[in-house]
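Worked Example 4.2. Consider the chain below.
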Amino acid sequence: MAVEVRDAPEAKRYEARVDGEPEVAGVADYIRTEELVAFVHTEVAPEYGGRGVGSALARAALDEARSARLRVLATCPFFAGWIARHPEYQDLLYQSRSSVDD
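Applying the procedure from the previous section yields the following structure tokens:
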């Protein structure tokens, strides 16, 4: 199964499609500023659950954030958990100035 992920900035989300099918298998909604991207909601269609669609969304979105030199705020529980299990992405996490100064 091949998962293709693309940014749909007009919809403020990343979209995943499987095996070239036209329907969207999963989405990761975000809010983006010049310095930060906040991932606020991730949803995978039930028929694609447990098949790596969510992971593909997270990896592609985080790789693009890294390329754009954006910090990441993972308010979405899926993204927060995924990053916690993939330490190679933890350097992207946003830290408020107050938590840095503590």
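The mean pLDDT is 94. Strands lie at 3-8, 13-18, 26-32, 36-44, 71-74. Compare this with Example 4.1 before moving on.
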